[in-house]
Amino acid sequence: MVACSLKRVIETVRNTCERIIGVLLVIILISPDSGSLAQDNSTIAHSVKKLSSNQRDTLLTSPPRFIFQDIRGFEFSDLPSSRSADIFLDRELSLKDNPQKGRPVLNWETGSGKSYLIPALEIPAFNLVMNSVARLAFPGSTEDGKGTYDTNPSTFWDKLANGSWGIDDDSFNTNQLMHPYQGAVYQDIARSTGLSFWESAGYTFVGSFLWVTGGETGSPSINDQIASGIAGNFLGEALFRTASLLLEHGEPGLWRELGAAVISPPTGINRVAFGDRFKAVFPSYDPALFWRVRLGATWTIHTSGASSSDLERNEAVADFSLTYGLPGKPGYHYTRPFDYFEFELTTGSNADHLVENLMTRGILLGKEYEFGNSYRGIWGLYGSYDYIAPNPFFRVSSTALPIGTTSQWWLSRSVALQGSILAGLGYGGGGNTTAQGDRDFHYGVTVQSLIDLRLIFGDLAMLEATHREYYISDVGSTAPPGSETIGHFNLGLTVRIHGPHALGIQCLLSSRDGEYAGMANQRQRIAQVTFVYTLLSDNHFGAVEWRPVGNH
Question: Staple partner for 544: which of 113, 277, 328, 426, CB 3.0–4.6 Å?
Fold first, then answer.
């Protein structure tokens, strides 16, 4: 009897929910704003007015089940632009007869076929999966006397109503590496379903908010919201564009599909899960590119301010960097965020910090300019995310919005100078591995600058110099009050040997000055030399040629 009663209750609830959904769909369609949700479908030939009263009643009491049966074929963004529920209901009947009819396919040029609903479902689902995995992987983790991941609707609502935002005590790698990658997944979920950078950025920010309020039981943290909700956009866009570039150049066979899925997992998953719906590859418009892969070994030749036991002096390293949209290429324009960007990933053999550097910066809003026939550039507002930890005793990471320029100048017939100069504000963390208060690094509003120059000698060699400076203030931080000044200077020479093969040497000088109330000032220095084999994408080291033949 109890089982039968329970079954009837479940059936009643289900039927009620279906009726509510059906009514809501009709309300959405006849509302004044419904046209903005949909695409026009001129193939519908009949009006629901011709339906019998029994057919009308059936549709209104049993909502369009194909929405749930095949989300690949139809969802809210697919609704016809007409504000009439009649047309929608008629289309529902026609799709029952032919499920493939009217199925949308993504068009990046017009935006048709993109989805607002799919990422709105996938991002919370991703958070639920992460929370479930964390519960299994870290069952003993606690925060404020509660299981870190033992969340439920009650804890979520309590955070929304009463939660006070602060700075959490997670490790540097968790906060500054894992959280930005988490945000990158949010960004790429939305991007892979056809949404623009800015639309996807909104989903990323909301996805991060849902995690800090519903994914963990601790107080919501400002640093996590910035790292995943903002830095995740910059990292995710670079990964999405790189994956799309791999698919765009050449037939997207098995290996290219797998490669794109490794670079941007949401892109690969949605391309498989939704069939032809999202198979259209994001158009790059053929930017000027330069990438390189470096393999080598690093020797630490000088340290000060740290115990030698804290440092692994020699290690193997691997590095990949990509410059996308170098200025000067005729016909290429910067109309979309990240039409120019730089991406760099460095890994080492030290198991304690496999990822040594992960950096990306791209133009968000900018404009092209030129001087004479030898100088081309872009300037504007950039978005940047830096994670720099090339040694185990001090490191820095920042999310920022700098202003600056990227350009190329032909100094002679074959010698070119490329470079970027940026400066701006952000929010970051950095410091020593010796704990400062509750953590081993310091958070705060960050002032930062970058000078990145490459002097290219035809197809023979490239001399490069990069200086990064970060001042992490005590604004927006926690105790103990203080500041960090961290600098990184890299000088490198790459000489081409044959074809795309080259050899190089890199010299890195890193410095840290930490000042905290009630503590002695901390001063650390490290000098490292790296010898590398380099595989180049371009025998001319990425120099862009725009000059007419005979003028150079």
Answer: 328
Chain position carrying tokens 């006070």:
164
CA 203, CA 118: separation in Å to the nearest integer?
11
- What does the alpha-carbon distance between residue 541 and residue 551 come to, in Å, rounded to a whole number? 21
Query: Which of 489, 486, 494, 407 shows the shortest CA–CA distance to 457?
Result: 494
pLDDT digits (tens, 9 = 90+) for 256-309: 999 999 999 999 999 999 989 999 999 999 999 999 999 999 998 888 876 555
- Angstrom distance (rounded) from CA 450 to CA 456: 19
Task: Please say whether the beta carbons of 227 and 399 come within 8 A.
Answer: yes
The pTM (predicted TM-score) of the whole model is 0.80
- Which residue type is seen at 103? R
Query: Which residues, including other chains, have CB under 8 Å from residue 193's CB and lie 6 or more apart?
Result: 106, 114, 115, 118, 119, 270, 278
Domain spanning 289-302+317-536, CATH class: mainly beta
Q: Which of 135, 213, 137 is nearest to 168 (CA)?
A: 213
Average pLDDT over residues 4-9: 46
C-alpha 79/C-alpha 26 separation (Å) is 11
Among 343, 380, 382, which residue's Cα sits nearest to residue 362? 382
Taking a C-beta distance cutoff of 8 angstroms, is the pair 102, 91 a contact?
yes
Parallel/antiparallel/unpaired status of strands 501-516 and 461-472: unpaired
Ordered by start, the domain boundaries in the chain are 2-97, 117-278, 289-302+317-536
